[in-house]
Amino acid sequence: MKRREFLQSGAVAAGSAFATKAQTPVPTPPKPKIITSVMLWTLKGTFEERVEAAAQAGMQSVELVGEHVTWTDADIVRTKKLVASYRMGMDTIIATPDWGKRPVSMVDPAQRDNFLADCKAAITFAKKMDVPQIILMSGNAIPGRTHEDQYASLLEGAKRAGDLASAANVTMIVEPLNSLVNHKGFFLNTCVEGLKLIKDVDNPHVKLLFDIYHEQVQIGNVTRTLKAAVDHVAVFHIADNPGRNDPGTGEINYANVYKAIRETGYNRYVTMEYLPLGDQVSSLKRAVDDFRTAILT
Does domain 34-296 have CATH number 3.20.20.150? Predict the structure, then answer.
């Protein structure tokens, strides 16, 4: 399943998340200053199988999209126990996982009440799930409206979401997506403008999600931009281009990208969000080991 389809598909059935299954012993992940995570939508299998695959690869945490939206409180308790049994955490959910199908755009002032209602609901889930971060999506550009008007609406929405995040002590992270390949028409499509937005919001509870794949597709110049943005980045997402597959299989020089991240002293989250080639556990383990080696040497 492509991420565009997953993001816009709405609630994901939760029943498969709690299938009874004997757990295979997993390695205890190291505790470097950077937390390594994986976006579960990129993996195959039931929810439980995807969580186990992340653990087998040595991940410290997992990110969700909209898996949680139909969960009851009992489901949440079971999920937290499942993830904790693998010595991992859950670090991120999305405020508007079905943003492509509902009027929750940040660039349309007429949809702001809907957007903020979703932010409030996401905060409620985040607090119950012990998730510290919530992803915000700008939505698609609106034909006939100026970029400046839409940016002003995006900024106001991000400020209002930031106020909610401050009160709840969570972090809203704004994610630019490329509009050339994966998300045609998406408004906030570069981390260059994403960084401007975060600076304009000026709230420590609103940060940038820097997706290296999306930035490479849209405009490139990744290492220079990430160095300029790093103080405002809460999460880096990792995938290669083209194909959104394993780091090292495409044109991005991840050795240099990791070196740049290391040189900045960055100490938050780095998340694998790619479609593994071959065995997914072996792929993830190799990817995260390469990252840790580059960061620690």
Answer: yes
